[in-house]
Amino acid sequence: MDQRPETNETRRMPVLFIGHGSPMNAIEDNEWSRGFRRLATLLPKPKAILSISAHWYVPGTYLTGDAHPKTIHDFGGFPDELFEMEYPAPGDVALANRVAGLLDGERASLTTRWGLDHGTWTVLHQLRPDADCPVVQLSIDADISPAEHLAIGRKLVPLRDEGILIMGSGNIVHNLGYAMTSDRLGNVSTPPWAARFDEAVGGAIERRDGDALVRMIDTEDGRMSHPTLDHYLPLLYAVGAAGAAANRGDRAGNGGAVSFPITGFDMGSLSMRAALFDAA
Predict the structure, then answer these.
(1) What CATH class has 15-277?
(2) pLDDT reading at 179 higher than 50
(3) What does the alpha-carbon distance between residue 109 and residue 180 come to, in Å, rounded to a whole number?
(4) Is the pTM for the entire model greater than 0.90?
(5) In a designed cystine with 222, which of 5, 149, 187, 217 is the match (CB 3.0 to 4.6 A)?
């Protein structure tokens, strides 16, 4: 029986950041896939979903403009079962145009050259298994600063009052090289730098302190946790859309609870922390 709350279009939608981890979470029954399914019960059904995935990290700001976005299998070395999976959610061209309008200063444009990559569909396979909500992806511009990504997230706030679930999909700690080496050596304990960074980020998320989140990626722990920024930046979109303060010391508009329905590490240095920002 589906226990998810029904859509209430007069209610401000929550914002979600999710640590998506391995594509295998789409087909395995494990701690993380079960966590995704439990998280689904906490989310109202949205009119549509805007996903910001770590795996569409390109120069420029784009939105999927397909009525039927393709399922992208952007990985290798996994079982055929995973490559055979499809996530047939419809697109929403009107929503894509709406977001492009909100981001006018970023010169966002629609494209049909992308689709739903695994940062989006492997998660939604658990959250919305019937693929019954339209989905649009927003790219992450690799040429702009973390502060600019946070500012884009803030521009998405109006969508929450229009029944749109904004979902950032990455990982708060994502040192894949370390994880794979540790796994090969049979040592998947979490290193101190990863634990410290995950905890520090969790505290900044609770405060909705976007400025702190921008700064801490340029610390020693931040650089160890993210050799590249692609898996960290979706968090800045989510925090911005959730009402991150525009200036240090300014906490206006930061109502609503923050919870962490999933925590823990996979393969030692992949934080699977999810953050749910309830409506103010």
Answers:
(1) alpha beta
(2) yes
(3) 36
(4) yes
(5) 217
